[in-house]
Design a protein that fits this description.
Blueprint: H1 3-24, H2 28-48, H3 52-76, H4 86-106, H5 119-122, H6 124-136, H7 142-150, H8 152-173, H9 194-216, H10 225-243, H11 245-251, H12 254-277, H13 292-323
Helix pairs in contact: 1-2, 2-3, 3-10, 3-13, 7-8, 7-13, 8-12, 8-13, 9-10, 10-11, 10-13, 12-13
Length: 329
């Protein structure tokens, strides 16, 4: 048994143990922290599977922002799960067993892990993406070529989902109706902890610089707009937790964030409209320059920037909205 296999088995065992522990916990704060551990181990598995792009997002969203939002939600409700009568657990258990059994049965038709003759390896589209994309798009990172160019419409749909989800959450929290809350802003202020303040102040430039690197390096390696957006948001969330919401909202005012949420989506759509006005197809970046390869580079950079803007603005605004609400209990 190789070291790689042992690492995978160990990580899988940690995932199973963490999931079982979370399912048994009634203390929701502990469950939230264990869920962050689950996301961290999952990100490690993605790295082992060479899905570094997904690992970036899982680490920033699953470990960082989601955990903060879960804790913020618990601060508005209660920290212990209500006891469910045993008779009401049976339907849920039956559905879980049925769904699990169906998945296990369906997995019997999957090719062997790493099989060289699997449909993914033998399909003609694979050769197009891996080899022809270098001539069509001129981007070394095939993932970026697929997501931002070949699947540009699909990625636009994903951005629209992020936009819609963000607007729905903000509508439920009511930040537009109540832009200023009477809640004391120093509830989340950790600035008195000198070590946290100093370390966070030292890390902030590197976090934002790394986000820019992930955005602009997405053509050549793991990265892109989604990953850069969540890293930007994680940096603003860290700043708000340590230095207080007042200072964080001075750096990124709410009005600016609310404007940036639709701006990214409109920028993405605008690139497509410009392509059509120049005589090309929607999101056909070749028309952006006399050199098709340069047009592809410019178009991909614009849409990746648009993705990063909307994702960062949505996640940061949701955090601010949670943090500014008054606890009802």
């Amino acid at each position: 048994m190789t070291v790689f296999t042992l690492i995978n088995i160990s990580l899988l065992a940690i995932l199973v143990a963490t999931a079982l522990t979370v399912s048994r916990l009634r203390a929701l704060y502990e469950a939230a922290m264990l869920s962050a551990l689950f996301s961290l181990v999952t990100a490690c598995l993605f790295v082992l599977l060479d899905a570094v792009d997904v690992a970036f997002t899982e680490a920033a969203v699953g470990v960082g922002i989601s955990t903060v939002l879960l804790l913020g939600g618990l601060a508005l409700t209660r920290s212990r799960e209500a006891v469910t009568p045993r008779r009401r657990r049976l339907p849920g258990a039956a559905v879980a067993i049925l769904a699990g059994g169906t998945l296990v049965y369906a997995s019997q038709d999957l090719p062997a892990f790493g099989s060289a003759d699997s449909p993914v390896q033998r399909h003609p589209l694979t050769d197009t993406y891996l080899h022809q994309s270098q001539e069509d798009i001129g981007i070394p990172n095939t993932v970026t070529s697929v997501l931002a160019s070949y699947r540009g419409l699909d990625t636009l749909g994903e951005l629209l989902v992020v936009f819609t989800a963000g607007v729905a959450v903000l509508a439920l929290l009511g930040p537009l109706a109540h832009p200023v809350d009477a809640r004391r802003r120093d509830d989340l202020d950790l600035v008195d902890y000198r070590v946290l303040r100093v370390i966070s102040a030292m890390l902030m430039p590197f976090i934002l610089l790394f986000a820019l690197y992930v955005l602009f390096h997405g053509d050549f390696g793991p990265g892109g707009g989604f990953q850069a957006g969540v890293i930007f948001a994680a940096g603003f969330v860290l700043y708000g937790l340590v230095f207080g919401l007042d200072k964080a909202q001075q750096v990124v005012p709410r009005v600016v964030l609310w404007a940036l949420i639709p701006f990214g989506l409109l920028l993405y759509l605008g690139v497509g409209v410009v392509n059509m006005l120049l005589g090309g197809s929607f999101l056909d970046y070749d028309t952006l320059s006399s050199d098709p390869a340069a047009g592809q580079h410019l178009g991909i950079l614009l849409v990746e920037s648009a993705i990063g803007i909307t994702v960062a603005a949505v996640m940061t605004t949701v955090f601010f909205s949670f943090a500014n609400r008054r606890a009802t209990r």
